[in-house]
Design goal:
Chain lengths: 205, 205
């Protein structure tokens, strides 16, 4: 597909370098931008520039933030003795959405995935170790995806930190609320039976 | 979904303003850009800026071009007596891909669509009229999509130009090559029967 404009070609190339966007979709999006008033596309480009130039990482928890310390780490209302370890900012927002957690977070910035060439050194694990060694943390909750990468990362972190006198916990795996038992996969169902809890305590939690 | 960074929020808003991209996908793409080396995202933004600042419209055919006249209109090898009218640059590329057409093009920049608020005045129809009135054109081929908008635009152009002494043709609608007859819709099949051609001429074309 030979494009008649070098500028269009470069824009299509840039857009199609995003994950999940092919060349055909990229061309559709580039033509959309060309059809809008020029300021629309200029603002679009500026928003991307400002994002990578100005967004920082919280020096405490590695979450994306406009300031050196993110709003959660800076809040006096949050329990700093409990750290919930997550993959990225989307998980922070998902957990915040539950309104059930009032501790702090630690954003790894990814999961260990040898297939994608991501090892422990690529994640903010050193920063987490510093926090745990400070002696101010009582519990670390692993809240990673129930995937192979999540489990691998969980296990790596467990091995790294099991010697420290800190309670290491992981979020419960089980039958999702609203799901029918017969359609739940065997592994999940097996875990939810082994990790059963007293009916009484299920009422209050 | 409250994002902890204003810059991230603006980038997500900009990306999700693209057609077919929701807020969740936009966040995924913004995080992807943040994970790349900074130059990657800066180049991305520059490509968008350069596109809208530097890409022009060919003064003859309204196609996107880096120069005042596009490469097809500038080529002495192309037949300027035949103009193929298309919706946008993607159709030009599709037809060029067939290697069956050696005339020139006219890019309308859209189709008449009252539902989307697009009327004849929003398309490059005046420019087409100027070309047709020059007396140098012998045939105009309407190559628009077989949709309601395409048919409406076809009919509008026909009414505009039927008084001029120019052959007005439209690309054939029919059973697509490789398609089975029994699965072809009735309207297409009906058209392909009414517009049947001599078997002999189907062999040479």
């Amino acid at each position: 597909m030979q494009l008649p404009s070098k500028h269009l070609d470069k824009a299509v190339e840039a857009i199609s370098s995003l994950p999940g966007i092919g060349r055909r979709t990229a061309l559709r999006l580039a033509l959309f931008l060309l059809k809008q008033p020029q300021d629309f596309a200029l603002d679009f480009g500026d928003a991307i520039h400002n994002l990578v130039k100005n967004a920082k990482r919280c020096v405490v928890c590695n979450n994306i933030s406009d300031h050196d310390t993110c709003s959660i780490c800076a809040s006096v209302k949050r329990d700093k003795k409990t750290i919930c370890v997550v993959e990225d900012i989307r998980d922070v927002m998902a957990i915040e959405g539950t309104q059930q957690y009032f501790g702090s977070y630690h954003v790894l910035g990814g999961l260990i995935s040898p297939m994608d060439g991501i090892g422990p050194a690529d994640l903010a694990i050193g920063l987490l170790a510093t926090r745990l060694n400070s002696g101010e943390v009582e519990e670390v909750i692993f809240a990673l995806s129930a995937t192979m990468e999540g489990d691998t990362t969980n296990f790596y972190l467990y091995r790294q930190f099991k010697e420290i006198e800190i309670k290491l916990t992981t979020i419960a795996r089980g039958v999702a609320v609203g799901n029918e038992l017969e359609y739940t996969d065997e592994i999940t169902l097996g875990k939810s039976i082994r990790n059963r809890l007293l009916y009484e305590s299920s009422l209050t939690h």
